[in-house]
């Protein structure tokens, strides 16, 4: 029986992935900040809950030590949240917390697993959830995008670095998902100068003019399952129509095409009107 270790399994995509892998006969180590509050995953066979805040280095160490006693094959770096608003208004603490969670949290969790996979001669796999915003950026999520772009580069480099030991690194880049992300995982920073742009973006979401297509977390979990099981040396899995569009705009049509698309969508000109 294969085992997957998941971060941020308390909700959304992390929980959907935990359910799916469990249903397909895997052992699941579902980690979350408050396992005592979990009422669904703890009832499933072959699911172990462990406490994990990815910003807490001591807890990361302890939880991984516990997890590897029974063997781990795949690590899913899923935990993350979005800092949104005008960059000018971000405090140092807000920026640091975003980097601590989305970027350093992933590094912190992955590093001991690389050592474990190498020393145990295990063909381990590390799958990291990035975002369409890690392929083509949008305004008002600059530091979030920075973390997700960084994860794409890091994961690619890691893959080349540890392939020699039979270890692989992959990313799954979802577009918009129907999770509680907006309600629970967006840290909004208000700034008067950026309110008109923010309002334009929000009304674009509401009237559908941004062409955002929300995928169900269960659909994105299927792509994570594919990444974990297809045995292919593929580095990145685009997950959902928005991610496919972001990659097409950015890679096939080029950076300029994406920039024109953003200007058209939000009608941004030099006067910010
Ligand atoms: N939703 C989208 O539209 C979308 C699009 C592209 C990419 N993503 C990415 O998908 C991933 C999952 O997001 P989601 O949409 O499923 O949102 P979600 O339902 O809000 O899940 C986010 C998870 O991350 C956990 N988390 C946050 N900070 C943490 C920390 N310091 N330590 C451990 N866990 C922490 C949360 O735990 P708590 O329950 O303790 O808060 C929660 O389980 C994120 O990496 C996100 O950036 C989301």
UniProtKB/TrEMBL annotation:
Residues making up the signal peptide according to the UniProt record: none
Keyword Methyltransferase among record annotations: no
Pfam families, alphabetized: adh_short
Sorted UniProt keywords: Oxidoreductase
Domain of life of the source: Bacteria
Coiled coil residues, start to end: none
Similarity field: Belongs to the short-chain dehydrogenases/reductases (SDR) family.
Protein name: Short-chain dehydrogenase/reductase
Species annotation: Dyadobacter endophyticus
Phylogenetic lineage: Bacteria, Pseudomonadati, Bacteroidota, Cytophagia, Cytophagales
């Amino acid at each position: 029986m294969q085992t997957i270790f998941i971060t941020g399994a308390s909700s959304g995509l992390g929980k959907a992935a935990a359910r799916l892998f469990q249903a397909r006969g895997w052992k699941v180590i579902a980690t979350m900040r408050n396992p005592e509050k979990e009422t669904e995953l703890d009832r499933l066979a072959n699911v172990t809950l462990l406490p994990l805040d990815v910003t807490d280095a001591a807890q990361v160490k302890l939880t991984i030590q516990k997890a590897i006693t029974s063997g781990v094959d795949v690590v899913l770096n899923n935990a993350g949240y979005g800092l949104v608003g005008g960059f000018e208004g971000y405090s140092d603490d807000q920026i640091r917390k975003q980097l601590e969670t989305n970027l350093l949290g992933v590094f912190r969790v992955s590093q001991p697993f690389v050592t474990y996979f190498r020393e145990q001669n295990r063909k381990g796999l590390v799958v990291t959830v990035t975002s369409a915003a890690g392929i083509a950026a949008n305004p008002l999520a600059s530091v979030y995008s920075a973390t997700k772009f960084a994860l794409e580069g890091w994961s690619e480099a890691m893959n080349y670095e540890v392939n020699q030991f039979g270890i692989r690194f992959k990313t799954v880049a979802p577009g918009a998902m129907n999770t509680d992300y907006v309600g629970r995982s967006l840290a909004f920073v208000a700034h008067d100068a950026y309110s008109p742009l923010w309002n334009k973006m929000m009304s674009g979401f509401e009237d559908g003019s941004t062409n955002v297509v929300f995928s169900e977390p269960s659909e994105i979990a299927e792509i994570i399952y594919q990444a974990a099981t297809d045995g292919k040396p593929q580095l990145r899995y685009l997950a959902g129509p928005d991610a496919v569009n972001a990659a097409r705009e950015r890679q096939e049509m080029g950076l300029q095409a994406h920039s024109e698309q953003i200007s058209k969508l939000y009608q941004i000109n030099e006067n910010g009107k």
